[in-house]
Design brief:
The chain is α/β, with parallel strands linked by helices. It is built from 18 helices and twelve strands. The protein folds into two domains: about 300 residues, TIM Barrel; about 70 residues, no CATH class. Strands 4-11-10-9-8-7-6-5 form an eight-stranded parallel beta sheet. Strands 1-12 form a two-stranded antiparallel ribbon. A two-stranded antiparallel ribbon has the order 2-3.
């Protein structure tokens, strides 16, 4: 007789307890609140607050969590769930669980290895990594570090269409399997914590590696350096201003001394600030992207079913229901509250992914029950990176996969296809 299959979640729990009996603990806390506290204790306040903070009074961040609490899972009994299949398919690729890493920018704030540690961990777990447009490491280096691991690319639509085209073409050459266009950040939200610190990492040359590694962007920097200087007057440079200039020069390719002499690092930051966001972006711009890539295109940041219908009419290949983790609009709808109506509007014609507020395997289960195909993990990945680097992120991804699979089985579901709205009831 063949031996019964041991599911990943069962083995994961067993391994953790056996390691504990031998005196070995996990490198990061399992509890998401304890993980956040651990990251807070290790990072400088401006760095932690940039990663952890939201817009205004952070009511949207709270709304994201409250939305999960409004749904309760209804476990079903006496169903054979000894063998479970938690995997899902996205654009022709089967992944082992419905989890991707979200495109979190400026990861050098959390750890020196930044994006490289995250993508290596994702590849080791078979989890697709979404390269951030605001990465600390160029996409080519991240792709090389992943081997054959699945990867996508997140695009912030710049004021320069030539730069947009260059980014997506580089993503194709890097083996990315989809382009994620973030729509909700054409302007930065009013982020109270960052404003209190007067801290925007891009002005220090952080999180702009995709730009400084791009030939189109460097031509824009050449043009800025060639332009006649403008007269400036004001107080003498402070120590902080000099430190900022040194940080810019150190991070820009080409060596710090050369960057200081040429002024190239400062010009790169100024060029980035001038072209980063495009508030004038409209539906009429989407065909440009289709003309420049054959990859599936997903729109990230949708919260209204009419926008979902409009996206389908435009031939978009997938949607990501998200409010940017509450970082953009204070007092906005919780992302999970927006999901059911969007799922109804889409009616299965394209895959829907979800982010904003995921903290447990039960949260993943609820998102799938309400219409998502998979979810993105953002802040928890950054916290795990801060606490334990690549090992922390690998541990986190394995824990979330196990927690989700156990929740699925305990609720009476053997496959993700069985996770439907009938598995939930509204609380209260």
């Amino acid at each position: 007789m063949s031996q019964p299959k041991i599911n990943f979640a069962n083995q994961r729990q067993t391994d953790i307890y056996l390691d504990g009996a031998a005196g070995r603990l996990l490198p990061i806390p399992v509890d998401p609140h304890a993980l956040e506290r651990a990251a807070r204790g290790l990072l400088p306040p401006p760095a932690f607050d940039y990663l952890a903070g939201g817009a205004g009074l952070e009511r949207t961040m709270q709304a994201n969590r409250d939305a999960f609490d409004r749904w309760r899972i209804v476990p079903r009994m006496l169903r054979d769930v000894a063998e479970r299949e938690p995997g899902v398919e996205l654009f022709g690729r089967r992944i082992p669980s419905p989890i991707l890493t979200a495109p979190v920018g400026v990861l050098e704030l959390a750890h020196a290895e930044a994006d490289l540690a995250v993508v290596r961990a994702a590849a080791a777990c078979g989890v697709p990594a979404i390269f951030s447009n605001q990465a600390s490491v160029p996409m080519e280096q991240c792709a090389a570090a992943m081997g054959s691991g699945p990867r996508w690319f997140q695009l912030y639509w710049s004021k320069s269409n030539d730069l947009v085209a260059s980014f997506v073409q580089r993503a194709e050459r890097c083996g990315c399997e989809a382009i994620v266009v973030t729509l909700d950040t054409t302007m930065l939200g009013w982020r109270t914590r960052d404003l209190d610190h007067a801290f925007l990492p891009f002005l220090r040359g952080m999180g702009i590696a995709q730009y400084t590694s791009d030939p189109v962007f460097q031509k824009l920097v050449d043009a800025a350096l060639a332009a006649p200087p403008t007269a400036t007057s004001g107080p003498k440079p402070s120590f902080s201003a000099v430190a900022t200039l040194l940080a810019m020069a150190r991070r820009h390719p080409g060596g710090m001394v050369g960057n200081l002499r040429s002024g190239r690092a400062r010009a790169a930051v100024r060029t980035f600030v001038g072209i980063y966001s495009r508030p004038s972006l409209t539906w009429a711009d989407l065909p440009f992207l289709r003309q420049h890539t054959k990859l599936p295109i997903l729109l990230k940041g949708l919260q209204h079913p009419d926008d979902a219908r409009r996206a389908l009419d435009a031939g978009i290949d997938g949607l990501i229901v998200s409010n940017h983790g509450g970082r953009q609009v204070d007092g906005a709808i919780g992302s999970l509250d927006a999901l059911p109506a969007i799922a109804e509007a889409v009616a299965g014609r394209v895959p829907i992914l979800f982010d904003s507020g995921i903290r447990t395997g039960a949260d993943i289960f609820k998102a799938l029950a309400l219409g998502a195909r998979a979810v993105l993990l953002g802040r928890p990945v950054a916290y795990a990176l801060a606490v334990a680097g690549q090992a922390g992120v690998e541990t986190l991804l394995k824990n979330y996969a196990a927690d989700f699979e156990l929740t699925m089985g305990l609720a009476g579901c053997r496959t993700t296809a069985e996770i439907t709205a009938e598995c939930l009831v509204r609380s209260g």
